[in-house]
Specification:
- This protein is mostly beta strands and 215 residues long.
- Helix content is 0%, strand content 45%.
- It has a four-stranded antiparallel sheet, with no helix packed on it.
- A hairpin with a 5-residue loop joins strand 6 (60-63) and strand 7 (69-74).
- The two termini are 17 Å apart.
Length: 215
C-alpha cells in the first residue's frame, strides 16, 4: 500500500512498508525475510494503508478502510504511540462517508486527504487536516485534528485516486487531483489551496490539468 522513509522503534531512519495487515520497518542490511519487523498490526481491510505518508511533523499517517486516519509517533523510549485523528466529532455526513483513497503531505502543516466516492450516493472529497493542532471534543473527550473542506466531486461513485502538489515555475501553489470513473478519468487542479478565499482574488478551480507521475 505504501513505502515511506520513516523510523524503526530505535528511531533510526529506515524504509517502512505499510500493508493492510501492518506497518513494518525494514533492515536493509539483512537480505532475508527477517529484515521486516512488525511495528504495529493493522486491521487487514483491503482499503487500509492506501498511500500512507509521513507528514511535515515527522508522524506517519495511515488511513483505514473503516474511515479513520491513524497518526503514529515514536517517543524517545521507542514506544509507538497511536492517535485517531478523525474524522472529528460524530463523523462525516452520509454523502461524504467512505475511506481515505490518497494521503499527501505538503511543505506546510496541511495534510491533504482524498476521501470517499466509493459507492452510489457517495461523493469524493478532498480535506485539509491541520497537523499543527490537536483538539479535544468537549462531549466525548476524543482528541482529533481539525479537518477543513477543500473540494467535493460533483458525481457520486467516482473516487479521487491521486493527489499531487506543485508550485511549478510561477511560484503559485496548486493541488492536482485525478478522479477515476468506470471508463474514463479527469485531472483538475485548485490554485492557492491554503489561502483564505476572502483574502485573495486569484484562487480558482481549474477543470483540466496535467499530473506528472514517476514511472
Amino acid at each position: 500500500k505504501a513505502l515511506v522513509d520513516w523510523y524503526d522503534k530505535s528511531r533510526n531512519r529506515v524504509p517502512v512498508l505499510v500493508t493492510a495487515e501492518g506497518v513494518y520497518s525494514i533492515d536493509t542490511s539483512v537480505a532475508a525475510a527477517s529484515a521486516a519487523t512488525l511495528m504495529v498490526a493493522l486491521d487487514g481491510d483491503p482499503n487500509t494503508g492506501r498511500f500512507a505518508t509521513v507528514g511535515i511533523d515527522n508522524s506517519l499517517y495511515v488511513g483505514l478502510g473503516s474511515g479513520s486516519i491513524l497518526r503514529f509517533t515514536i517517543n524517545p523510549d521507542g514506544l509507538l504511540q497511536t492517535m485517531d485523528i478523525g474524522p472529528p466529532g460524530d463523523g462525516l455526513v452520509s454523502a461524504r462517508q467512505g475511506y481515505p483513497t490518497f494521503l499527501l503531505s505538503t511543505p506546510s502543516e496541511w495534510l491533504l486527504v482524498a476521501y470517499g466516492g466509493n459507492d452510489s450516493n457517495k461523493y469524493a472529497s478532498i480535506f485539509m487536516i491541520d497537523t499543527s493542532v490537536i483538539l479535544e471534543d468537549e462531549e466525548t473527550g476524543k482528541k482529533y485534528m481539525p479537518w477543513h473542506h477543500l473540494y467535493q466531486h460533483a458525481t457520486d461513485n467516482i473516487p479521487i485516486a491521486t493527489l499531487g502538489y506543485s508550485t511549478e515555475d510561477d511560484g503559485i501553489a496548486r493541488i492536482h487531483f485525478a478522479a477515476i470513473g468506470a471508463s474514463a478519468g479527469g485531472v483538475a487542479h485548485i490554485e492557492e489551496p491554503f489561502s483564505n478565499p476572502s483574502q485573495t482574488a486569484t484562487a480558482k478551480y481549474q477543470a483540466t490539468s496535467v499530473l506528472r507521475l514517476p514511472d
